[in-house]
Every structure is written in structure tokens, then in C-alpha cells.
Design goal:
The complex is a heterodimer. Chain A is an all-alpha fold. In chain A, 76% of the residues lie in helices and 0% in strands. Chain A contains 15 helices and no strands. In chain A, helix 8 (162-174) packs antiparallel against helix 11 (203-219) and helix 11 (203-219) crosses helix 15 (273-282). Chain A is globular. Chain B is built from 13 helices and two strands; from the N terminus they run H-E-E-H-H-H-H-H-H-H-H-H-H-H-H. Chain B has helices spanning 3-33, 50-57, 59-90, 97-109, 112-122, 129-136, 151-161, 164-174, 179-187, 192-220, 224-230, 251-261, 265-293, and strands at residues 36-37, 45-46. In chain B, helix 2 (50-57) packs across helix 13 and helix 3 (59-90) packs across helix 12. Classes of the chains: A mainly alpha, B mainly alpha. At the A-B interface, helix 1, helix 4, helix 5, helix 6 and helix 11 of A face helix 1, helix 3, helix 4, helix 5 and helix 8 of B.
């Protein structure tokens, strides 16, 4: 009898012990998800539901036209394309130039190896504000303000890509030196080692950096704010900012636009989840 | 030149060209500009230390430094603690871990401008989510982004909501702490708190250092969210970009205003150098203190 009670009690205790973490995790998830849910619900409300008292959580008649209105009132498709174009070009640029320098400060034995790496870390710690004004003036003198050049070209020279060079270099350092060494003994050139040994082994980190970088450029605000002055060239960040300034009480439309701005990122996340999360482990910054 | 040196230079050349054009030259130019009176339309004229004098005498600059330090001092540690707490909870072997992980992570990838918009609406004093929920509990919520006392706590809340990025990195490092360390501590009768303090924290201390420095840099340069909220509060386009009673006037926002709204490039350049100096000193001090609290396990 007592043993039966004991085991029953133990079972319940175990059940509770299992249940408690879920309770915490679920409560926290609710906190994190609620704002997004609120965004989605607001995006299909009518302006009457918006300020209703008591507040309406679920609109009785969802107003999907809010989404149509966004397309009608701003050049949403154009802005999406602009944002996509700039992001993809930056990804291509950094993925061409950053692994090269990351290789030069990991597996090439030369005098400048540590100097270059120190410069990379230095750019990481340098506030953007220090270089912002002279860089703007350079682009002004070249007559390129208002074009995409100031947003895209620096990526091809790894400017502002210190963090990504760092991630790539940390990953390269984990690759066995012996592999590269034996290729060198076989007489392979550095370029060949880079292209035929290093790159194939580095697919996971290249994918991770590509995804992180796409995300960062997709969301960038300051760059487009500085350099784009023609509405037809706006990115989504800048376009949404401008839209807010003229439509600041139409929360349902602002939320519909925000939802469409964020959706591609969420889709990308689900497709590239592994790169987002597992990628962190590959970089060696875990300790 | 040695062959290896040539190869090294060749591989580094795209970066080096970019470094010279977009870092080295601008650093020099910005230093020169900081001693000149300069706007986009006339060439710079030398004014000596006038711009630095302005930086130290201008009330708005001090206000913006105070606001920025508030964020650095509170938002950075709070985001780190929330990130670590979430990672620690996820590190318990529970079912559905990957679903929870996704839910915590997604807010951190919502673009800054969209995040600001969402939170403006969530924190709306009358119809917002939070005050509505507080209302059901019989609590009258604050005016959040309209009340100078609550504007920065609102931003900290926004920052904590996006702590998923920090969490992901902590989670990876927690999963890397050797099980054997915990097991031997259990044999010694260590409890949960004890294990966390004497095993978990030291093991992940290099990552705490890394994230601390990245967090400080982010908040010293805090811009997009502040710019968005400040040009919007008091409903409508607010050209001062300062928010209620200048409570949202952050250093990077003021610097932007000086440079690109009022075209006082000299002022802005001096501000940039002061920022550079402050962040360098803070980073240096943290690195120096780190040998006392960061342990690098050799494995």
C-alpha cells in the first residue's frame, strides 16, 4: 500500500516536474509571440475596430483590403524589388571578397597575417559615425548619391563586413592544417587550394554568412536614409518610414505593410533555419 | 617580395582597397573635418578646437549622452540576461525545444523599422496591447512613448523582445559545456544555483564578454529605432527627432541631425570622434577587466 502510494506520488511529482518547464517556456513564448499576433490582427481591422472601446481582439469582419490599400498607396512591389536587389548584391559582394581575406589571415603563412586580422577587428569596433560623413562626401563628389552604388559597391570590397570576415576566419581556423599542408606539398597553388579544398569544405559557413548578411541588408535603415532620395528607389525600411510620416494614424495599414515587410524574412528563416541556428555552432564563437 | 607575402597581399587586396577607401581615408578626413567649419556647400575652413568646445558646451549633446548611457547601462545587461535566461530554459531537455527556440528567435529578425512600428502600436496608451491587458487587471498603464519617464524603458522592452539573437549564441555555448563537469559537481552535492554560478557562468564567460562588447557597440550607436520613434511621438512628423522632453534624443540621432539636417559637418565630425574615444575607452576597460572574470578553458 505504502509502496503503491509512494510510486503514485513519485509519478505525479515527475509529471509536475516535467510540466513546470513547459509552463515557463509556453508563458515566455506567449510574451514573445503576442506583439506579432497583435500586428497581424491589427492589419485586418477596420478603422472602427482600431480604437473601439472595449478593445476588439479579433475583428468580426476581417478587412483584407488593408493589404490592397498598401499596394495602392505606396509602390510596395517596387520597394520590395529594390530591397531584394540591394540585399542580393551585397550578399554576392561580401561572399566573393570576405572569404579571400579570411583565408589570408588564417591559412596563408605570411607577414601580414596578423596585421590584417587586427585591421578586421579594428573595423568591427570602429563606430559607423566616424566614417559616415567623409564617405558620404566621397560619394557626393563622385555624383553617386541617389544611386545604389554607395549601398552595394563597398560590399564587394568587404567594407563594413568585419563581423562576417571574423566568422569566416574563425571557421577556417577549425579546418585541419594538414589538409592544406599536404595539398601544398603536392604543389597546388594557394588559389587552387582555396577554390578546390577550402571552399567546398566551407559551404555551411558561407551559407550562414549569406543568410545573416541578407537579413542585415534587408533591414538596413541608415544606409538607404543617407543615400536614397528618390521615392522610386526607396527600400522597404525607408519606404515604411516615409509611409508612417504621412499615414501615422492609419495603424491598420501600417501594420499590413509591416507584416508584408517582415514576411519574407520569416519565410527565409524557415527555409534556412539550419543556417540561422546551427551555423552559430560552426563559427567557433561559442567558446 | 616573398611568394607567400605576394599571395597574402593578393588575397587581402579587395579588403585592403576597401579598408583604405572606406575606413582609413574617412578616419583621417573626419579628424580633419572635426577642426573645421564645414557644410556640404562650401569648403572647410579651419576653426581649431571650436567644434569640440561646442560638443562640451551644448546642452543637447549632454542630454544625448545621458540618454545614450541610460540605454548602454540598462538595455545591454537586460538583453544579455534575458538572452541567457531564455537559453538556459531552452537548454533543459524538454520536448518541443525547437518550436520554443523558433518562437523566441523570430522577433529578433523582424526589421528595426517594423519592430518600432509594432511596438508603437503595442504601447499605444489607449488601444495598445499592453495597456489593454493591464486594464483587465485593473492597472492603469503608463503613457509609454509619450511620457518622458517611460520612453527609454519602452525601448529597453523592445530590445529585450529582440534578445533571441543573443539567446541563440548563448544556447550554442551552453550545449558545449562538458556534461562531466556537472556530473562531478553533482557528486559533490552542488545544487542548481551553485552549478549555474560555478560551472555554467565561468564556462561561457568568453561568450558573455563577446556579447557584452557587441551589445555596448550597438547601444552606443543606437539609431534606427530611436530615429523612428522620435520622429513620430507626439503623433506626426516631429522634425527635432528628440521625442517628449528630448527623452529620445540619442547621440547617433543628434549626430545625424547635425550632419544631414542642419549641415554642420564640423560639429558632427567632432561628435563622431568623441564617440570613438568613449567607445574605445569603454571597450579597453572591459577587455582589461576580463582577465579577472573570463576563463578560457583549454580543450
Amino acid at each position: 500500500m505504502s509502496s503503491a502510494t509512494g510510486s503514485f506520488g513519485g509519478g505525479a511529482g515527475k509529471g509536475i516536474r516535467r510540466f513546470v518547464p513547459h509552463l515557463f517556456l509556453a508563458a515566455f513564448s506567449a510574451v514573445f509571440v503576442m506583439p506579432i499576433l497583435w500586428l497581424l490582427l491589427t492589419s485586418i481591422k477596420s478603422d472602427k475596430d482600431l480604437y473601439a472601446n472595449p478593445p476588439v481582439l479579433f475583428p468580426k469582419q476581417p478587412r483584407w483590403e488593408n493589404y490592397v490599400d498598401v499596394f495602392r498607396e505606396i509602390n510596395f512591389l517596387g520597394m520590395t524589388w529594390n530591397t531584394f536587389f540591394i540585399s542580393i548584391m551585397c550578399v554576392i559582394g561580401v561572399l566573393i571578397s570576405a572569404p579571400l581575406v579570411a583565408y589570408a589571415c588564417s591559412h596563408i603563412e605570411w607577414k601580414g597575417k596578423n596585421v590584417i586580422f587586427a585591421l578586421v577587428i579594428g573595423t568591427l569596433l570602429l563606430p559607423y559615425q566616424v566614417t559616415m560623413i567623409p564617405t558620404y562626401i566621397i560619394w557626393g563628389k563622385l555624383g553617386m548619391i541617389g544611386s545604389y552604388m554607395p549601398l552595394i559597391l563597398p560590399a564587394f570590397l568587404s567594407a563594413g563586413a568585419g563581423y562576417y570576415i571574423f566568422l569566416l576566419r574563425q571557421f577556417f581556423m577549425t579546418l585541419p592544417v594538414s589538409l592544406i599542408h599536404s595539398a601544398k606539398i603536392d604543389g597546388a597553388s594557394e588559389l587552387r587550394i582555396y577554390l578546390q579544398i577550402l571552399m567546398p569544405l566551407s559551404k555551411p559557413i558561407i551559407a550562414t554568412v549569406g543568410v545573416l548578411l541578407f537579413l542585415a541588408t534587408w533591414s538596413d535603415f541608415l544606409g538607404p536614409l543617407l543615400y536614397l532620395n528618390n521615392e522610386k528607389d526607396y527600400t522597404l525600411s525607408l519606404g515604411l518610414y516615409a509611409f508612417m510620416q504621412t499615414h501615422y494614424i492609419m495603424w491598420e495599414k501600417l501594420m499590413a505593410a509591416s507584416a508584408m515587410f517582415t514576411l519574407p524574412i520569416i519565410v527565409l528563416f524557415f527555409f534556412a533555419q539550419k543556417q540561422f541556428i546551427e551555423g552559430i555552432k560552426l563559427t567557433g564563437i561559442k567558446g | 617580395m616573398k611568394r607567400a607575402t605576394l599571395t597574402g597581399l593578393l588575397f587581402s587586396s579587395p579588403f585592403l582597397i576597401g579598408f583604405i577607401a572606406f575606413t582609413l581615408y574617412p578616419i583621417g578626413a573626419s579628424l580633419v573635418y572635426s577642426f573645421t567649419d564645414f557644410n556640404m556647400f562650401k569648403s572647410p575652413s579651419w576653426v581649431g578646437l571650436d567644434n569640440y568646445r561646442w560638443v562640451f558646451q551644448e546642452k543637447d549633446v549632454w542630454k544625448s549622452i545621458a540618454n545614450t548611457l541610460y540605454m548602454v547601462l540598462f538595455a545591454t545587461p537586460i538583453s544579455l540576461i534575458v538572452g541567457l535566461l531564455l537559453a538556459q530554459m531552452l537548454n533543459m531537455k524538454v520536448r518541443g525545444q525547437s518550436i520554443y527556440r523558433t518562437l523566441y528567435y523570430i522577433p529578433s529578425i523582424v526589421p528595426a523599422i517594423a519592430t518600432s512600428l509594432v511596438w508603437m502600436w503595442v504601447l499605444n496608451p489607449k488601444s495598445g496591447l499592453i495597456n489593454t491587458a493591464l486594464g483587465y487587471l485593473g492597472i492603469r498603464g503608463p503613457n509609454w512613448l509619450l511620457d518622458p519617464v517611460w520612453t527609454k524603458p519602452s525601448l529597453i522592452l523592445m530590445g529585450a523582445w529582440g534578445a533571441g539573437g543573443i539567446m541563440i549564441i548563448f544556447l550554442a555555448s551552453l550545449q558545449d559545456v562538458p556534461r562531466s563537469l556537472y556530473e562531478s559537481a553533482e557528486i559533490d552535492g552542488a545544487g542548481k544555483v551553485r552549478k549555474f554560478l560555478s560551472i555554467t557562468l565561468p564556462s561561457i564567460s568568453p561568450i558573455i564578454l563577446f556579447q557584452l562588447i557587441m551589445g555596448l557597440i550597438t547601444y552606443f550607436q543606437y539609431f534606427a529605432q530611436a530615429f523612428m520613434l522620435a520622429s513620430m511621438t507626439n503623433s506626426g512628423a516631429n522634425q527635432t527627432m528628440a521625442g517628449p522632453e528630448k527623452s529620445l534624443l540619442f547621440y547617433a540621432v543628434l549626430l545625424y541631425r547635425e550632419a544631414f539636417v542642419d549641415f554642420r559637418m564640423g560639429h558632427a565630425s567632432a561628435m563622431a570622434w568623441v564617440l570613438f574615444l568613449i567607445t574605445s575607452i569603454v571597450t579597453y576597460l572591459i577587455f582589461r577587466s576580463s582577465n579577472r572574470w573570463v576563463t578560457y578553458g583549454g580543450d
